[in-house]
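FAQ

Q: What does a record look like?
A: Structure on top, sequence underneath. For example:
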């Protein structure tokens, strides 16, 4: 790493600091508009309305904006600003929330006790707005010798990114650095590791019979499922960070009928790709091995989110962020969080990734979701500085 170039950026960073604070009222106005627009993952029109609020700001900054429409989900937005320097920096953000239409009108964006409140305010609409604010400050302040910068906005992270995973991997494949603007943790730390997750469904076929007259002729799918549930829960290993939970079960038609069918939905989480592969293999063995002879079971689904592992790329970007934070006058911590996110997909493409770069917040998915307003300008500045420093500290991977 070249640690001698920081003073060259001091005038730029001073101008960026001033610009972020000068434009902060406008940043909050955009945040309010975005939070007050419902964008439930399964409501493509709502998701696209949020895109429509953001795209004009990106175009005014000089980004070329490509909108990729799709069926069943909101659009993907790829905003690209070419730069003269080698390298390619990618910012990731999802605009969808788990909140159904009508939530924003019921509890719109409000400010009280130094916090902003509202559905998706920190997960992760505050992060998406931070991207715009950071780039506005950088470009206004004269960040001319820059690499290409790209912003990718996705519509379906809250349901596992079914339409976005391949695109995230595609855009990250040549990135010098990837910053995922998920919320910073409540203590102000960024995320240097995340669990991956799997969502699975088991279907069991048995044979119906009258439970009183000819019980012996039946084959109970419910009994088979009960055995499998016990075996699945035994796969949990908290010491290794592996969990399995059977969260939904269905089966049978009536109490006097031997159940011919049963179903379970299963969630698994794991700290590394290797753990995930091992867990899936163990689950498949349980599904394939009958406890009640004559039953047949099938497994569907798979790994939804890949984990973010604290590899060399993560550590390199974290060191850059810590350097930037120290120059701003505070210490930045990294944390391991149990929740899954899109960062693991970017890492799987080989890119250095740092997650949790968005504003400090908490209460995600609940009615008490908040964003710490007093730290918001500082987090925007931290992102801006990292966008400048990462291309200097890391070798370019873009071979175009």
């Amino acid at each position: 790493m070249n640690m001698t170039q920081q003073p060259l950026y001091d005038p730029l960073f001073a101008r960026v600091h001033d610009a972020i604070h000068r434009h902060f009222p406008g940043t909050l106005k955009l945040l309010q508009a975005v939070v007050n627009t419902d964008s439930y993952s399964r409501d493509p029109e709502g998701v696209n309305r949020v895109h429509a609020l953001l795209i004009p700001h990106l175009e005014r900054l000089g980004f070329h904006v490509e909108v990729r429409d799709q069926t069943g989900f909101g659009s993907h937005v790829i905003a690209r600003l070419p730069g003269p320097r080698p390298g390619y920096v990618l910012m990731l953000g999802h605009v969808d929330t788990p909140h159904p239409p009508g939530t924003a009108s019921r509890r719109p964006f409000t400010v009280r006790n130094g916090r902003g409140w509202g559905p998706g305010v920190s997960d992760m609409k505050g992060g998406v707005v931070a991207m715009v604010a950071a780039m506005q400050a950088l470009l206004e302040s004269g960040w001319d010798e820059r690499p290409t910068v790209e912003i990718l906005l996705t519509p379906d992270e809250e349901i596992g990114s079914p339409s976005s995973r391949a695109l995230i991997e595609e855009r990250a494949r040549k990135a010098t650095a990837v910053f995922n603007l998920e919320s910073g943790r409540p203590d102000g730390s960024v995320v240097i590791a995340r669990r991956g997750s799997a969502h699975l469904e088991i279907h069991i076929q048995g044979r119906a019979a009258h439970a009183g007259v000819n019980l012996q002729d039946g084959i109970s799918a419910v009994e088979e499922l009960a055995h499998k549930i016990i075996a699945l829960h035994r796969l949990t290993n908290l010491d290794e960070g592996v969990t399995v939970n059977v969260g939904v079960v269905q089966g049978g038609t009536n109490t006097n009928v031997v159940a011919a069918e049963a179903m379970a939905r299963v969630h698994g989480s794991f700290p590394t790709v290797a753990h995930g592969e091992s867990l899936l293999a163990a689950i498949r063995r349980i599904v394939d091995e009958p406890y009640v002879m004559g039953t047949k079971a099938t497994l569907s689904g798979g790994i939804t989110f890949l984990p973010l592992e604290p590899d060399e790329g993560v550590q390199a970007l974290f060191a850059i962020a810590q350097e930037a934070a120290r120059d701003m006058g505070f210490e930045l911590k990294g944390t391991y969080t149990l929740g899954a996110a899109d960062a693991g997909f970017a890492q799987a493409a080989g890119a250095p990734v740092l997650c949790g770069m968005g504003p400090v917040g908490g209460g995600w998915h609940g009615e008490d979701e908040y964003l710490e307003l007093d730290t918001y300008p500082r987090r925007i500045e931290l992102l801006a500085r990292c966008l400048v420093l990462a291309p200097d500290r890391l070798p370019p991977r873009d071979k175009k």
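Q: Is there anything notable about this one?
A: DSSP finds eleven helices and 16 strands in the chain.
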